[in-house]
Design brief:
This protein is α+β, with helices and mostly antiparallel strands. The protein has a single domain, classed as Deoxyribonuclease I, Chain A, CATH 3.60.10. 18% of the residues lie in helices and 29% in strands. It contains five helices and twelve strands. The protein has a six-stranded mixed sheet with strand order 3-4-2-1-12-11. Strands 5-6-7-8-10-9 form a six-stranded mixed sheet. The longest helix is centred in the middle third of the chain and has 15 residues.
């Protein structure tokens, strides 16, 4: 019997509001992801009790952005998690990568999974240049034949818009790199064909603008496992961050 698994990405906004840092526990208990990509998170143990954190500690890799208390993290529920070196000194904490063995289906037996939590840096150059540099680094780091999953806040539109949609500015060349160079699909767009891109960020004064900068990119050959991809937007999530979690749901076949 197939097992349903989830992959989630979530920007917590400066670590989340003090006194209400329930983000990690809420995601892990309610969404129950097999992979969780987190951005602008404080050191993960901040969000757990002293008793519960040791249960998760070995499955988490986190690094802080230089001179900031927050950074990017990855949690993998299953498998051996090995932290990867930063793609470059400038990207340390903005992009956190791990190599996972024994993750299980949809990763083929004996195959390695590389996972990257991405937060495109601000204030150094354009977001387009930053994401291109991130993809350059990932392409160099990943070994041939491995699977790659990338989730995060790219600070630009991660998808292709219809001519009728608002916020027409998009990056078709950049989106093509995910597919052509890394063999990845946009989970939201593949699971929701011919639909307008939903809002994942609400930071603007106009809270209705459909900024769609958070996404999950998974191997295109996982398409047969992909059931759905959702943007979680509801009153109980909105106070926690100005970003909405994105969750891709797949079916995983049991390993033998």
């Amino acid at each position: 019997m197939a097992e349903t698994i989830a992959i989630a990405t979530y920007n917590l906004r400066f670590g989340g509001k003090a006194g209400n840092r329930i983000h990690w526990q809420k995601v892990l208990t309610e969404l129950q992801p097999a992979l969780f990509f987190v951005q602008e998170t404080l050191e993960p143990k901040t969000y757990f009790s002293d008793e519960s954190y040791p249960h998760y500690a070995q499955q988490i890799h986190w690094a802080a952005v230089h001179k900031r208390p927050w950074g990017s993290a990855i949690y993998a529920r299953q498998g051996q998690v090995t932290p990867l070196e930063a793609l470059s000194p400038a990207l340390a904490g903005w992009v956190t990568g791990v190599k996972i063995t024994g993750f299980g289906s949809p990763v083929s037996p004996g195959k390695t999974l590389y996972a990257y939590s991405v937060h495109a840096p601000s204030g150094r150059s354009s977001y387009i240049k930053e994401v291109h540099a991130i993809l350059d680094g990932i392409g160099t780091q990943v070994t041939a034949g491995a699977d790659v999953v990338i989730g995060g806040d790219f600070n630009l539109t991660v998808g292709m818009r219809h001519p009728s949609e608002a916020l027409q500015k998009s990056q078709p060349q950049l989106m093509a790199r995910f597919r052509r160079e890394l063999g990845l699909m946009s989970c939201w767009q593949m699971a929701n064909p011919n639909q307008n891109l939903p809002q994942t960020l609400r930071w603007s004064n106009d809270k209705t603008k459909p900024y769609h900068c958070d996404g999950i990119f998974a191997p295109a050959h996982w398409y047969r496992y992909l059931n759905r991809t959702d943007v979680i937007a509801s009153p109980d999530w909105h106070p926690l961050s100005d970003h909405n979690p994105v969750v891709a749901t797949l079916e995983r076949l049991p390993t033998t």
